[in-house]
Amino acid sequence: MKIWLNGEQTNIDSELTLADLASQQNLDEVRYAIEVNEEIIPRSEHPTHTLNEGDKVEIVTAIGGG
Asked: Coil, strand or helix: which one is 20?
């Protein structure tokens, strides 16, 4: 199925959760936020929030520094 990931059309497996997507993007050790269709999804919902055809997903990672 196709979704938009950070502005680019991407093919993913159906039934993919946000937690699965984050893992595929190698974000396990990174601070990040995920927005789906212009709504921030709390991290507590990532394991159960499945993606749908045509979803627009934005992943933002935190950058440290000072």
From this structure: helix
The vertex-46 CA angle with 60 and 61, nearest 5°, equals 15
**The pTM is what?**
0.89
Listing from the earlier edge strand, what are the strands of the sheet with 56-61? 8-11, 2-5, 56-61, 32-36, 39-41
List, for residues 54-63, the tens digit of each pLDDT value.
999 999 998 8
Mean pLDDT (whole number) for 3-28? 96
Number of structural domains found in the chain: 1
What is the Cα–Cα distance from 59 to 51, expressed in whole angstroms?
Answer: 14
Give the torsion sign (CA, 22, 23, 28, 30).
negative
d(CA 60, CA 27): 10
Q: Is residue 7 part of a domain?
A: no
